[in-house]
Structures are given as structure tokens and as C-alpha cells.
Write the C-alpha cells for this entry.
Amino acid sequence: MKLWLVRHGQSQANVDGLYSGISETPLTEHGVKQAQTIGDLLNQVAFEKVLCSELGRAQHTMQLIVQQRNIPVVTEPRLNEMNFGDWEMQHHRDLQRMDSENYAAWCNDWQNVVPKNGEGFQLFSQRVSEFAATLSSQPKEKNILIVSHQGVLSLLISTLLNMPPASMWHFVIEQGAWSCVEIRDGFTTLRTLNNRAIYSPAS
């Protein structure tokens, strides 16, 4: 089974430098073009299923990739980005002023300190791990497209490779690119990361 991983296109919050975990933020014009380009790059992949975050920026990206192709789409809340609570749609400069003590604590210990009214990394990691575990129950699927977010996809890769959660930072998922993970006989291989080439079945 191959998992084709795509991060949503550039959002307005990305441009503005804001924490946009579960907050809705539209794709920019550039983000729309990124998604359309990925649709062209992966046009020859015979996807049997799409698993997508329920957030609008991921859903829009997915729709631009799939276009008129008849592929079953499953909206999967466990693919949502981490909830930053009261820090949602805030810039780090503002947080350093408005919530300096808590923000500094989080920056120093992001795996354990939880943003106020937020999800926290431990719960976030747990749900991504639970999602990863469900993938083994879909052995008949050969090609699954997963459209999600930077944090989710980075953590998913490290989880599937049996690496510690903190190792997610080794896998920076870029916008406007596709990555591929292959799972065969219980063994996971990272086939490509942030690829911008046209996929050909013969390649």
C-alpha cells in the first residue's frame, strides 16, 4: 500500500504568520495554484480512496487535486491540525506580549505544556498514532491519497517509521509538493519527500 501525502496549499494564515490549527483560513491564490499543480503531478496515480482533514483549507486542496475523478472521499477528523486553543490565529510576537509566561513555557517544553484551552502535543500525538494504526486494516487499498497539515503529516511519517514523536521535525512537509510512504508486509519505507515531479507509473 502506498500513502500519497499532501499538505494543504498556502493559506492566508500561513502568509500572515499565525497559528491556525483548527481555525478556518482560506487558501490564497497561490495556494489554489499549488493544489491544482499537485492534481496534475499525481494525475496518473490510480487512487482508490482519499482521506482528508475536515478543515476547509485541506478540503479545498483535496477538491482541486481530485477534480472530476470518481474517487471515494472520507473526511477524517484525526487528520485535523493540532488545536492551539486561545493561541489560534495569533502571531508569536503577540503571544510573547499577551501570554508571555505560558508561551515561553510552551516553547521550552512543547511536548508537555498545553496551550490554554488547546489540545496539547500528547493528545495530538495520540490521535495521529490511532489514525496510523487504522491504516494496517486497509490492506486491499493500493493507493490512498491523504490531504492534511504540516504537523499531522510530519508526525504520521515519524509514527509509521517507528520513530519518537519529537522526530517529526526531521520531516518538513512543504506546500505544493507530494510525498509517498509505502507499507509492505508491515514494513514502512519513505519513498519520496516533497517531490515536485510528475508521477509516472513507469518511474
Q: What stands out?
A: The helical segments are 12-16, 29-41, 56-66, 92-98, 100-108, 121-135, 150-160.
